[in-house]
């Protein structure tokens, strides 16, 4: 008896609908029309002889079996991706498409300086970038939507391998004239009532709080910034103080502001920038080569003369 198997395309439709919870958005994510996606899912249900999705005018609800099939489909698609990666890895390294996730507290500060060097070294690499918070990036990595992620550690991202690129020191940013005397800031000198942090979902918040090791900061800090640029503007307007990574200062985030920045005096006063990928990925050799290249570029950039100064003194 001939047994017809689900197609990769049908499974992609199912996973997209499960992720987005909306036929229109799922169709956009798959670059097809809504009717095409809906027809593909009905074909899948007819093939399996079960109902996977309950359709109403307002709600898309997966059945209990549909939930199990969708989760299994994620693993099947990931295995399919890794099969293609295995074949590609046997060819020329860092050649063709590579989908990299980058968190928002790294992307705008590091990539503009790094990418031109990377393009010159690996001109055949087609790098597609996706900027999103740490948790979303890790989820996309394990779903097979990303090949690797440029992340700040420590951060729990599941079964992954990693290569450290460099350590990124943390600074404390104050409104002009409010920074304590001295070249660095002691943890105990931070006013918990004036601390401004990024919203949940950004790992920089957890790195900063862990470096300080002060439960009162976590309890009293206002978590209201959607980006580092927003936090800097708040500090510039005298609304409080915040943490800024060195790479953002080096990239000029404080230029044109009346914000003073001092290094945080702490044994854990830094975050570790790393490239991570799925432990099961067949492209490990490529990712380690990519990490080596990025590490060397970062070292060369840090050794080059830089105009912006990390410590801004009052005028």
UniProtKB/TrEMBL annotation:
Entry GO terms, CC: protein-DNA complex
> What's one Pfam family here?
LysR_substrate
- On whether Isomerase is a keyword of this UniProt record, the answer is no
| MF term (GO), any | DNA binding
Question: Which CDD domains would you find in this protein's record?
Answer: PBP2_OxyR
Residues in HTH lysR-type domain copies: 6-63
Q: What is this protein called?
A: LysR family transcriptional regulator
